[in-house]
């Protein structure tokens, strides 16, 4: 479990790696269900701190409190160490042409990973046209306005609960 969560942490890009988490935790290992994956991600969105604190939830679902501790330490520990090392190197070399090219090449990669995460959440959470309309409306509000994301999520959850989604 440590090795799997460490690998997931190392390949996560800005916390947007839900598609790979689904592949490993749900489809390959069968450690959690698609619903646990979606619930954990939603919980991570409303909690303060990194949005992938959901890995603590996943670890807990897999093996209780010890699983939560292992998943969290494995996901964040190696990545924090490597990030500190890369930050020190980046600081010294950030003006080199290869560094600028690398930074620019990561933008489409990040967009693709975020799109894959959106598709995973959509597939595991939206099962009715009303839910699709509600999710689309919430997305539009967050994209085009400065409404607090927590308020949009709470309102969507309340509406979903009232209409029975």
UniProtKB/TrEMBL annotation:
Record key words, sorted: Cell membrane, Membrane, Transmembrane, Transmembrane helix
Keyword match Membrane: yes
Membrane-spanning intervals of the chain: 58-91, 98-120, 126-143, 148-164
Domain of life: Bacteria
Membrane topology summary: Multi-pass membrane protein
Cellular component GO terms, alphabetical: plasma membrane
Coiled coil regions in record: none
Name of the protein in question: Chromate transporter
Pfam families (UniProt xref): Chromate_transp (PF02417)
Keyword field contains Disulfide bond: no
InterPro entries named among the record's database cross-references: CHR_Transporter, Chromate_transpt
Taxonomic lineage from the root: Bacteria, Thermotogati, Deinococcota, Deinococci, Deinococcales
GO molecular function: chromate transmembrane transporter activity
Chief site of localization: membrane
Cellular compartments annotated: Cell membrane
Similarity section: Belongs to the chromate ion transporter (CHR) (TC 2.A.51) family.
């Amino acid at each position: 479990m440590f090795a799997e969560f460490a690998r997931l942490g190392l390949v996560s890009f800005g916390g947007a790696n839900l598609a790979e988490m689904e592949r490993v935790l749900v489809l390959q290992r069968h450690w959690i269900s698609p619903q646990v994956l979606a619930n954990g991600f939603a919980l991570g969105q409303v909690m303060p701190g990194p949005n992938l604190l959901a890995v603590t939830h996943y670890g807990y679902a897999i093996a209780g409190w010890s699983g939560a501790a292992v998943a969290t330490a494995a996901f964040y520990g190696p990545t924090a160490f490597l990030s500190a090392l890369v930050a020190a190197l980046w600081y010294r070399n950030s003006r080199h042409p290869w560094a600028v090219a690398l930074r620019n090449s990561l933008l489409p990669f990040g967009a693709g990973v975020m799109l894959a995460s959106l598709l995973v959440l959509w597939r595991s959470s939206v099962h009715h046209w009303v839910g699709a309309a509600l999710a689309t409306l919430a997305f539009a509000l967050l994209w085009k306005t400065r409404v607090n994301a927590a308020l949009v999520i709470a309102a969507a959850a309340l509406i979903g609960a009232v209409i029975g989604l």
